Amino acid sequence: MTSKRQTEFIPIRRTAMHQKHLALGASLVERDGWQQASRFDSVEDEAKLLRDTVGIYDISPKSKFGVKGDRLVQFISEIFSESTIPNVTESNITRIKDEKVTLCRLAEDEILCLAAARSQKALAEALKNKSGQCAHTLELTSGLAGIGIVGPRATRLLSMISELNTSDSDFTNLCCAQSKFADIHGVVLRTDIGDLPGYQLYCGREFGEYLWEALMQAADVCGGGPVGFEACDALTG
């Protein structure tokens, strides 16, 4: 009797904006376990949009973990021993197993950890090994929708839907905040790419489609539109 080797079935995940991407005619491909929009137009045209006006793109597949606790600083210091702990409303970039991790300090006792989708397992293991000693972690990868905004008009676009002061002097690169945008509560992180202003917005998955639509309308006013990950990858090099 021949035994059959069981193959684990791992479903491809879809973001909250999946149907919106389909309606816009996006080219969808599997990447890091997620079905993602690689492009909506030619990569060249989308890269030009990012350089000249503003582009919005789905970043929901990013690995996202919330860390909370009274001894947050000790907890984070033990995991990211070579990193300084950011002040409240600031973030910094560190690494774990050669993968970049952004630590966003949202409150005295709260940090949001962000990393590439491929880093989810490594980040989860690192946080789990220490969790419960002086802080607790919660995986938010599927629970939070994320949208990126990049381009010369990104700040103007965000100011159209947000009550946050997004001026260059008050909300500089790597600043972060819990705020309202498009009348929903979420997290805003500034992530400039070179000399181009950029932002990452995170909200509950249930508001993902609504936020995408709000940003699409604002982007249209600013002369921008949606872009896929290929143009974003080309921009970051």
From TrEMBL:
Q: What's one Pfam family the UniProt record gives for this protein?
A: GCV_T
Which SUPFAM superfamilies does the entry link to? Folate-binding domain
**Record InterPro entries:** GcvT/YgfZ/DmdA, GCVT_N, TrmE/GcvT-like
Organism the protein comes from? marine metagenome
**Domain annotation GCVT N-terminal: ranges:** 17-235
Protein name, per record: GCVT N-terminal domain-containing protein
